[in-house]
Amino acid sequence: MRHDASTELTDQERAAFAALDRAGQPSRMLEERTVGLLRERGLLGRRRRAWFGMRPGLVAAAAAAVALFASGVVVGQWFATRTVVASVAAANHESAMQLAATVQRSGSAYVAALAALAQVADSANGPSVDQGREAALAALYAAVGELMVLAPDDPVTVALRDLFERSAPARGTAGPPEIRNVVWF
Q1: Which of 18, 56, 87, 98 is 20–30 Å from 105 (CA)?
Q2: Distance (Å, rounded) from C-alpha 185 to C-alpha 172?
Q3: Is the dihedral of CA 141, 143, 147, 148 positive or negative?
Q4: What Å distances lie between residue 101 and 35, 93, 97, 158, CA to CA?
Q5: In Å, what is the CA distance from 145 to each residue of 152, 161, 175?
């Protein structure tokens, strides 16, 4: 929207307007007095300072909020760690129990297979029985090797290892397998 100043102002108003000093700025003192008067009358609020100039109650409340948050994080982490440790311990216990049950089933199956092999031990099945006996001894030797890893100081395990080492053939192509521990990452 365009306004034409000549149609809105009278001649007297135009003359007064032209007489005004356009280049001058109000002094700094005038500005300060005006702001002071406005503040005294409540028309202008107080000047706010940076956060470090806040009231002590607000600073204390902010510090308490930060401390409460930090302690909540620490307590939460502590509870989570306890829960994880308990869960891992329970899982390890369960898996150890499951592995013990698997060893029990495997041992029972091993004994049952040897009993079945003894049932068919006749002259007609000689080579098959010999092969089954060699497989049974190899499995037994491997089991003793794993027992040595599991319980190296157990006297029964040591006696079995010594018995197998004395009765094993000379270390050649048909000797007992080498027991190695491999750690996978």
Answers
A1: 87
A2: 33
A3: positive
A4: 89, 12, 6, 24
A5: 9, 7, 14
Whether 103 and 146 have beta carbons less than 8 Å apart is answered as: no
Say how far apart CA 21 and CA 30 lie, in whole Å: 16
Give the model confidence (pLDDT) of 81-101 as tens digits. Answer: 777 777 777 777 777 788 788
Contact present, 103 and 88 (Cβ < 8 Å): no
Distant-in-sequence, close-in-space partners of 150: CB < 8 Å, separation ≥ 6: 157
d(CA 126, CA 13): 135
Write the pLDDT tens digit of every residue in 122-179.
Answer: 656 677 778 888 888 888 888 888 888 888 888 888 888 888 888 766 544 455 556 6
CA dist 136 and 117 (Å) reads 10
